[in-house]
Every structure is written in structure tokens, then in C-alpha cells.
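Q: What residues go here?
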């Protein structure tokens, strides 16, 4: 986690969701106790399970959330959880949901990876010097056992043979936190282990790096589990950060472009078949009875794009995060606190804070609990519920970011962010807007004395007629970053206008609608009639005829689209649709049949 995020307080959905998850999930001490108990009881032995991922995955989200909210209650809860975890470390240095007789199979290495992830993230926010040293020593011992047992030497087991699942890609994702440990310690054995993992190509069924360099699309890889594959390439990117070897940056950039081209759908997720790369850009219009568009995939894609941005400062990665956050991800937050269906138990289970799967054509939410596992003492949890907090934190954290002497405006959230420039001068930027419902944005700078720095404003790739007003001069600007370098004085303001219009996306005989960054959908809980009935939009020349209405509670946008027969179709932002999946009328659809 980057420690240079601005201190910020925003108003609206991004802030609401971050604090909702903080209160409902992250500050729940009893939940952390369940996660720690997994390592005491070795709960994953019985079914080669993945319960051992829950702690580290949610700790990452908790630490990111603390970086945004600075909530002392949360810090105290996270500290207690880490202290509880440290007590579970055995004499060999292992923190695992498996005992030594059953280790290095199933999801054991995956769970150990997430132990490292969680401890690395907590180390980044920890204010207690003695505790930091204790955590670092625990991470060393935990990692050293893995380095000793896994590799190419005599008596060692290959990393790709430590799981029968997905060609061992899940185990190879230990690459990223191992590199983070190298960054913290400088100890060469962790870098050497990372290089060993990279040498395997991340998969026993075929080298994933060579697949990318050879031009294969993700759905053509020897293993196509989207979440784990993206996590592996995040590790490759981490290796670039310590080695400077451009090959590895290039391969991750090429991988991300391939994912965007072949598998990212209109809501910013991938996988129309379970959680698999399956050429989703083409398959997304199909009716499907299977689970699809997993929340773990959404958040991992957002995180990969954020890390690519940190290494390139290319605005397109922020465009992609925005698409995912405002559509697929925000749609997954279970604000109605409804129970979800469990395929494993064939019944409803208690509510989790995140839904796992997102429908695209004529289907419902709440159809399954991703990564479902029961605890021996009772209760259950899931992978998507644990990863979600990283998403609710990431979006506001990256809204306004200071890197060196450049202040990036990435996501236009109403509120204020503060930071200290390299010169030592404090700077505050206030954003006034109701984006994404409209594109009118005003940014005002506050300084104690004049200071020179660069303000970089992201112009989204969907916006064709953006205008910027600075010092009384208005100009049309193109997508990407518009850079304003000047000596700023307190009270200086810039006006940005990002006009959005209702647009159509046509594919496979169906149509989807977008409005700026928002993908729109029909929700039969919001209107009567058949939401799959074909219709033909009315046009004024090339423009669709529609009216933007006042959004209702929980909505980002509400539009009435006029049809040729003068009937009206209600379109609202995808994220607000289908939230009440317990209702009798609960189907939603992004893709629509159009009358010829």
C-alpha cells in the first residue's frame, strides 16, 4: 500500500460505502476472532479449504480503509486481530490453516500468501515500533519456512505442485507479498525465491508470461481462473518495481490490455462463466443460468489497474477503475443486508456485506456466496465478502493523489483532500460537484502561501467535449491528463465540464446504454412490465430522446428513454439495480433487445 495518500473527507456514495463497510464488517471483533481461530484449529485440513485467506484478505481492506477514514476504533480492532494472529505462529514459523502432515496442498500456499499480505499491510499503518519489529520477525519466519520447503532443490516441492487447482497459479501468487517482504528487509533470499516463481511461468500447464508475450488472450491461457491469474501478474509487476527490468512492466501492460479487450464487460468485470476468463466481451449479452462476474475479479482488476497507474501514471487505468467501481463493484454492496443463496448448502445463508456475482441479462443478484466455507464452530463466510473492503477504500484513496510535485485529480468526489508538497507547503483541494450524475466540477486550492506545483486533471475516455477554465480562459481538452503547472495562490479555482450524453453500445443483436462512466440497466422492481421486451428508442437526428430525472435514494442516475411508440423505458445506474433481490420482481438487465 502506498503511504503517500492524501488525507481526505468526501461526501456521497464513495464515503458512505467505505464507512458502511467499516462499521458493518471491519470493526466486528467477533469476525476477526473467527478468522484467527482458523489457524488455531487448522480448519482447512478437512476439505483442503481456503478459510486461511479470509484474515489477510480482509486485513488488507481494513488497512486501506484506515488509510482513508483514520478511524481510531478501526485501528484498535485491526491491531487486536494482528496480535491474535501472531499468537498462532508455530515453532516452525508457520501461520497456516493446515498442519505439517497436510501442508502444501489444496489452498495452503494461497492462505500463507494472504497471511503475508495482511501483515504487510498492517505493518504499513502500524505506529508501534516494537510491534512493527515483532511483525517483521514473524513474516520472516513465516516466509523462510516456505523458501526452505518449496523450490528446485533436493527434497523441495515445486511451487506449481503445491495445489491441484488451476495449475498451481493460486500458489504462485505468493510472488507479490514475497517481493513486498524483500522491499521491507532487503534480504536476497526473498528476491531469489520470487525469481524462482517467475521462472516457472506461474502455471504447471503452461508459462503464463510466454502466453502473454506470444499474443494469447486470457481465455486462451492453459488455466483461465481470472482472479488468481491477475494476482500472479500483480506479482510480476511487483518484481519490475524491485528489478527495473522493463520486460516485466511490458508484459503486465500487455496482459492488462488483453484482459480489457477480451474479457472486461460493460460493468467493468470479467468472467461470464463462473470466475473464468471466457471472452466475456463477446459472451456478455447471453442469458446465463450460471454465476458470473465475480466481485473478487472486479476488485482484483481495480487493484491491478491501480498498481499499473503507480508505475505509469497513465490515465486509462483510472478510467478502468472508475468503470469497475461505479458499476460492478458498487452494485455488489449488500445495502439491503439480505441473505444470499448458498449452492453448497442449497439454502439461504446469513447476509454478507457483499454480493458475489453480478448479472448482465435478465437475472437476479444474490445467487451465490463466492468462496463459501463454513467454520467448524458454526457460521460461514466467503472470499468476495473479504476482498470487498479493498475496493470501497481504493476508490476514495485514489480520488486525489499527490506524487512528488504533481497533484492528480483522478475521481471527482465531492469533498476535500489535503497533503504536504515536497517544498513543505501544505495544500488543500476542494471539489464541488455531483459527478457522475453531471459533469460540472469546480476545484479550489487553499494554500498558506503561493506554491508552484502541477495539477493533473483526468479527462475520462468517454468524454468527447470536455472544457477547462483556468484564470478566466476556457479551452476544449482531450481525454487523458490535462496538466496545469503554475504558481498557485490560495483561492485559485479551475472549472471542468465533462458533458455526458446517453450512448448506445450494440453487440450480438442487443443494446446497452451508458451515460458517462455509468452503465445503465432496467430493473423490474422499479417498473412494471417485461424488462426483456424489445423496444426501439426515439431519435432526434442521431441523438436519443430522453429525460434525466431526479435520482431516488440509492441511485446515481435516473433516465426516461422515449421509444418510437412514445412509451418510456426507465434506465437507472446498474449499481442501484436489483439490490432488493428478495422482492418478488427482482430481475435486472443491462442488455436489451431492440425492435428492427
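A:
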Amino acid at each position: 500500500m502506498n503511504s503517500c495518500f492524501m488525507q481526505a473527507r468526501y461526501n456521497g456514495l464513495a464515503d458512505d460505502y467505505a464507512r458502511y463497510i467499516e462499521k458493518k464488517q471491519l470493526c466486528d471483533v467477533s469476525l476477526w476472532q473467527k478468522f484467527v481461530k482458523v489457524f488455531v484449529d487448522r480448519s482447512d485440513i478437512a476439505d483442503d479449504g481456503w478459510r486461511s485467506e479470509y484474515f489477510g484478505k480482509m486485513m488488507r481492506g481494513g488497512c486501506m480503509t484506515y488509510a482513508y477514514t483514520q478511524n481510531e476504533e478501526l485501528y484498535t480492532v485491526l491491531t487486536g486481530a494482528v496480535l491474535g494472529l501472531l499468537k498462532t505462529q508455530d515453532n516452525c514459523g508457520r501461520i497456516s490453516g493446515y498442519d505439517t502432515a497436510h501442508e502444501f496442498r489444496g489452498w495452503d500456499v494461497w492462505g500463507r500468501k494472504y497471511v503475508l499480505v495482511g501483515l504487510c499491510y498492517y505493518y504499513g499503518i502500524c505506529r508501534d515500533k516494537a510491534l512493527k519489529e515483532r511483525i517483521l520477525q514473524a513474516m520472516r519466519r513465516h516466509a523462510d519456512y516456505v523458501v526452505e520447503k518449496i523450490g528446485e532443490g533436493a527434497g523441495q516441492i515445486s511451487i506449481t505442485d503445491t495445489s491441484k487447482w488451476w495449475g498451481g497459479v493460486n500458489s504462485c501468487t505468493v510472488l507479490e507479498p514475497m517481493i513486498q517482504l524483500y522491499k521491507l528487509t532487503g534480504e536476497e533470499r526473498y528476491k531469489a525465491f520470487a525469481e524462482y516463481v517467475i521462472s516457472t511461468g506461474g502455471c504447471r500447464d503452461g508459462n503464463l508470461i510466454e502466453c502473454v508475450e506470444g499474443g494469447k488472450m486470457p481465455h486462451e491461457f492453459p488455466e483461465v481462473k481470472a482472479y488468481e491469474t491477475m494476482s500472479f501478474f500483480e506479482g510480476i509487476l511487483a518484481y519490475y518495481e524491485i528489478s527495473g527490468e522493463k520486460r516485466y512492466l511490458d508484459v503486465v501492460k500487455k496482459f492488462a490490455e488483453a484482459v480489457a479487450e477480451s474479457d472486461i464487460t460493460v460493468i467493468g468485470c470479467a468472467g461470464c462463466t463462473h470466475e473464468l476468463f471466457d471472452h466475456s466481451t463477446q459472451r456478455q449479452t447471453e442469458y446465463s443460468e450460471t454465476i458470473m462476474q465475480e466481485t473478487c475479479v472486479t476488485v482484483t482488476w481495480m487493484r491491478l489497474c491501480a498498481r499499473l497507474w503507480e508505475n505509469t501514471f497513465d490515465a486509462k487505468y483510472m478510467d478502468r477503475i472508475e468503470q469497475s467501481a461505479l458499476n460492478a463493484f458498487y452494485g455488489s454492496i449488500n445495502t439491503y443486508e439480505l441473505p444470499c443463496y448458498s449452492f453448497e448448502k442449497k439454502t439461504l445463508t446469513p447476509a454478507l456485506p457483499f454480493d458475489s456475482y453480478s448479472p448482465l441479462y435478465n437475472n437476479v443478484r444474490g445467487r451465490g456466496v463466492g468462496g463459501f466455507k463454513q467454520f467448524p464452530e458454526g457460521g460461514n463466510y466467503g472470499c468476495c465478502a473479504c476482498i470487498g473492503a479493498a475496493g470501497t477504500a481504493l476508490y476514495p484513496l485514489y480520488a486525489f493523489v499527490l506524487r512528488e510535485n504533481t497533484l492528480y485529480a483522478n475521481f471527482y468526489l465531492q469533498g476535500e483532500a489535503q497533503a504536504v508538497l515536497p517544498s513543505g507547503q501544505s495544500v488543500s483541494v476542494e471539489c464541488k460537484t455531483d459527478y457522475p450524475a453531471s459533469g460540472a466540477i469546480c476545484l479550489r486550492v487553499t494554500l498558506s502561501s503561493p506554491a508552484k506545483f502541477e495539477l493533473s486533471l483526468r479527462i475520462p475516455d468517454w468524454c468527447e467535449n470536455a472544457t477547462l477554465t483556468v484564470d478566466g480562459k476556457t479551452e476544449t481538452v482531450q481525454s487523458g491528463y490535462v496538466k496545469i503547472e503554475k504558481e498557485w495562490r490560495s483561492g485559485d479555482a479551475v472549472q471542468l465540464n465533462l458533458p455526458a450524453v446517453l450512448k448506445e453500445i450494440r453487440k450480438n443483436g442487443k443494446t446497452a446504454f451508458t451515460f458517462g462512466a455509468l452503465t445503465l440497466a432496467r430493473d423490474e422492481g422499479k417498473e412494471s412490465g417485461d424488462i426483456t421486451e424489445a423496444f426501439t428508442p426515439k431519435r432526434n437526428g442521431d441523438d436519443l430522446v430522453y429525460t434525466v430525472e431526479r435520482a431516488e435514494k440509492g441511485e446515481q442516475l435516473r433516465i426516461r428513454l422515449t421509444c418510437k411508440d412514445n412509451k418510456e423505458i426507465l434506465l437507472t445506474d446498474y449499481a442501484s439495480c436489483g439490490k432488493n433481490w428478495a422482492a418478488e420482481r427482482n430481475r435486472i438487465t443491462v442488455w436489451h433487445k431492440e425492435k428492427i
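A: Context that may help when evaluating the design: Residues 9 and 358 are 29 Å apart (CA to CA). The chain has 16 helices and 25 strands.
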